[in-house]
Amino acid sequence: MDVIVRKWRPDTESSVPPYEQIRLRILDLAASGALAVGARLPSVRSLALDLGLAANTVARAYRELEQAGIVVTAGRSGTAVASGGDVMGAQVAAAAESFAAVVRDLGVPGPKALSIVTAALERGAAR
Fold it and tell me: The whole model's pTM is what?
């Protein structure tokens, strides 16, 4: 998920520890909607490599986010942004997952699937 590292790196000169900078970055992205409910985060190793940090540093940030209910970790499924009590967001994320599964199963190209969704949303708004 390049949205976490795009135009951002931990400030090595800061008095704020790197794990806390990562935690705050992900928290800000989740709160702003840049990381949607259900969005998968990069693996600990992958993000650590991208940021040039130790895996334990990223793992601590993820652990603290999980303890706060911001993310959920499901073993091999990885870490994803939690609903955090956002029932509507969770329902939309679940519907999006279902839609994406159908699109993949049918082999529909992503841009075509998105245009179908856009048209459905526009039809709904016109009612």
Answer: 0.66
